[in-house]
Amino acid sequence: MSENRQPRQSWAFGCLLKFLAIPLGIGLLFLGIHLAESQVLPPLGFIFFGLAIGLGNLFWRIGRKHMATGGEEALSGDSRPPILYLRSFADDKTVYLEEEQLAGVFGPAGPFVAIGRPGERLPQLGAARLYVADEDWQDRVLELMQRAQLVVLFGGETPGLGWELRQLRLHVDPHRVVFLVPHSEASYEKFRSLMLQAGFGAPAWPSEKERKHATFVAGLIRFGSDWTPRFVPLPKAVGKGIAYEADPRFGGTGRVWAAMRMVGKDIGIRTASVPISVVRPIYLLFRGAMVLMGWLTVLAIALLVIAYFLGFIPL
Fold this sequence. Notes:
9 helices, single chain
């Protein structure tokens, strides 16, 4: 019998990391400014600019993972039917930003849960993770499917996902099932093969026009009452006044959020409004500056190495 191992989270350590993230980032940023203005070590200034962003973001995200609510706690603390997220574990690092959008948009609807990867040290951000033994996961997934007010599945290619597709076809109202289409045609064709094996109809790979606003998700597949599938393109997400296109939380896109808002409205699930990114212009400028400084750092280091080997810089 396999062991049901839980991640080793520490709420206090998570608080500490989040507390340190901001002063660490600001401190490294000012150190970078000081070094960039110096006449001796300006290239190091650009390096510290990058460290300010990278380490600050890393501390913040790890802190959030330590403080994340577990799936059992989310279900026991909320009597409403859950929203179930299904995917291959291998896709966790591919669509993690989109998963965070799903968690945000379905926050008002009820607990948003997923089965956690066995043995992971910390849970991914997004859906609250449930950790079950290998011999119990199918029973738990089936029980959650039958209770769920919505099942969202990201298209993958593993045998476990094939089993989940077959159970969806047997036990869930088709109006309450949404598939997220992977962004590459090769990945979609493998997922499409699983769909056909499970008895689903499967749309052809969408046209370039239909994928105009694709991210790591090319679009949605929704179903009629007889399981007839249709492809739904992602919309261009727009908030009131400022286009929601570059919020730092979502890596430049709120389109999955906006698409799921339409799904929720269609089936009567309460969803959160698309956030208005008032920091968008600042974020875009800052991100562009960081990219520029990164390339300048590489150029400066290359010039220093060349100058050293040509003898312009003595030991």
